Amino acid sequence: MSSILAHNLHLEFDFSYTSFPLVSLSIAFGVWLVWKTWKLITISRASLPLPPGPVPLPIIGNLHQMSVTDQSSTFLQWQEIFGDLVYVNIFGTPTLILNSYEDAKELLGVRSQIYSDRPRLSVAGELVGWNRSLVLGKFGERHRTMRRLLARSIGGKHAQSFRLHEEFAICTFLLNLLEKPRDLKLLLSQLTGSVVLDVAYGHQVKSGHDQLIFWFRRIVQDFYDATAVGSIIVDMIPALTYLHSYIPFTSFKKTVATWRAHLTETIEHPFSRVKEQLRNGIARTSYVAQHLSEGPLDFETEDALKYSSFNLYAGGMETLAVALSTFFFVVTKYPAIQQRAQQEIDNVTEGKRLPTSNDRERLPFVEAVMLEVLRWSPISLPHRLEVEDIYKGYRIPQGAVVYSHPWAMSRDKRSYTSPHEFRPDRFLETPKEPDPRLFAFGFGRRVRQLGPICPGKHIADDTLFLAIALTLATCNVTKRVNEAGDLIEPIPQYTMGVVAHMAEFDFEITSRSDDAIQMLTAAHTQLGE
């Protein structure tokens, strides 16, 4: 018996011993197989073509073909030649332009995990400081913290708690516009800034010379300048980020320092003032006050709160300003649209009160006007691809800057009938045409992770509807008459750049009645108390 047991043990020992080479061989084969597969995939990816696009020049690529003032027209021309996917090279940076909603939804929405980063803008980001913000900051834990803070206070249904802030700002805007219709552009800037400052910091703007409004407008202009062509050269050549201080005969270093000082002042001052107001027990309801009053915050969370409050402007307020300038153009040019919307409002309010957000479902044509305004004037910010991707048989290189081109999407004949016409009924007919908010407020994880529209954009959507409804309820916007007694016909023109704005045009604005002015003034007084 013992000999049999010993023999069995010996066999077991021999079996385990002989398994070592087999295991090693299996591991080696597995490593080789993985390497071979990776190599084949790499070779296969490298052999795939890039998306079509214009032929680049050495070194500068397609930079010479990029319009400084009207990028959208250039993109539209390329779309006609190359299709919905257009690939260009800007000083060595691969760049992809998405002209269709379906492509943008797939890449920036479905594949948002690898498309959620922002391009590296050395001047605006690293040198000025916008890289700590939601606009240009790298997607990561800091972004998630800022988004969580925003979602808890103003995301989704939470935006409703700030409607009184919006109504006060709109009433102020309309009363000022009735006095100074030539100041539309300035007053629109004040309106958007007023909403942001009231929601973010509880700061009510009561005059056209508000210091915080001036600071906010200034840093927005600084941002445009920091992303202009001269700065883009530094962005495309990273070494210049660190050498700019040594470039002789240039004021670039001083200019960057000024931009940075402006940004720091605009972020720090209103935040510190809310902290002081809380200590003195006089703080008004606001996004910042709500979070600071919940208890001490660690440094990282407080810094995220500080930058997220400032970024409310970038989270939809620029879309609001552009859309409202388009609205005033539309009601000037198409009086029948204005009259139809006014009749709908009068049927609901009977002329005895002002419309509110609670009337929104009963004002479908006013809502349709708002949607058509958004379709006419969408804006977008670029994304950056973190890893190489393959789409529709094309290779998209790692680090590619990806532009969704909402102007092409909003004028796509496959989605919209007569896309160059202003026709609100397209959103009332069956079947309805696509809601422009799908692309007007951006794509991607930054938008999708907190719902269809991210924080700040709920505020902008509410404010846009209220501004349109209150304007139609209380005012008549008409064409201006020249010295010869002829009506001046407004022509739709946009000033292109980082953001496209409706160019200035002539119009007249008057109150619809004495009762309308009295209701507007009374609401302004009551809301300002």
From TrEMBL:
Cofactor(s) for this UniProt protein: heme
UniProt-listed InterPro entries: Cyt_P450 (IPR001128), Cyt_P450_E_grp-I (IPR002401), Cyt_P450_sf (IPR036396), Cytochrome_P450_fung (IPR050364)
One Pfam match: p450
Pathway: Secondary metabolite biosynthesis
KW Acyltransferase (keyword) present: no
Molecular function as annotated in GO: heme binding; iron ion binding; monooxygenase activity; oxidoreductase activity, acting on paired donors, with incorporation or reduction of molecular oxygen
Binding site for heme: C454
SUPFAM superfamilies: Cytochrome P450 (SSF48264)
Transmembrane portions of the chain: 15-35, 223-243, 312-331
Statement: the UniProt record of this protein carries the keyword RNA-binding: no
Family: Belongs to the cytochrome P450 family.
Entry protein name: Cytochrome P450
Native species: Sistotremastrum suecicum HHB10207 ss-3
Classification lineage: Eukaryota, Fungi, Dikarya, Basidiomycota, Agaricomycotina
